[in-house]
Amino acid sequence: MQQELAALKANGTWSLQALPPRKKLIGCKWVYKIKFKFDGNVECYKAILVARGYNQVEGLDYHETFAPVVKLVTIRLLLVIVSS
Length: 84
Fold this sequence. Notes:
Blueprint: H1 2-10, E1 28-36, E2 42-51, H2 72-83
Antiparallel strand pairs: 1-2
């Protein structure tokens, strides 16, 4: 967990900001996972820091969401352009 937190700080993952008026702060929590090898032995332990966004209310805490997803047609077109 300390290693993951140090990596997040070193990469500049976040910066402290002032909380806007009438907005609530969302928290975060650690999610732990054990990764196993094929023979059943432990390969590594993982710790991931995630935001608790499920506490937010649409229209009050946020107005729209966006997920950067590329269409398959765009990827195929890019591959055709690169290969020619």
